[in-house]
Amino acid sequence: QVHLVQSGGGLVQPGGSLNLSCAASEMIDSGYIMGWYRQAPGKERELVALITSAGTTTYTDALKGRFTVSFDNAKNTLYLQMNGLRPEDTAVYLCHVLIYDASGKSDAWGQGTQVTVSA
After folding, report:
1. For the chain, what is the mean pLDDT?
2. Residue 14 and residue 24: Cα distance in Å, rounded?
3. Percent of the chain scored above 90 by pLDDT?
4. Percent of the chain as helix, strand, coil, to the nearest 5
5. For residue 106, how many other CB atoms are within 10 A of its CB?
């Protein structure tokens, strides 16, 4: 069972940038869908971005152009580069992986990391 460990996050001023990381505990050498989600206080968890083993990416429309998702196969690490941050981006950010192969499917969540955008 793969485990995900997140790093990055913290406090940033409006307009600033942050880069979140999500390291997988083992090589993911089968099909996968990896993603970033976020949950703000009092709100439901929402999708931020997805990336698949085929290299396709998907973003929530409101975040296109400001956030970029990527996966480094050599490091087994998922990234989320966030630019032009706004107070409304404040949330706990979580990474997720869905792995699928001939034996079935499995998934895992990262532990979450707080991102606070405030002057």
Report:
1. 95
2. 30
3. 87
4. 5, 55, 40
5. 13
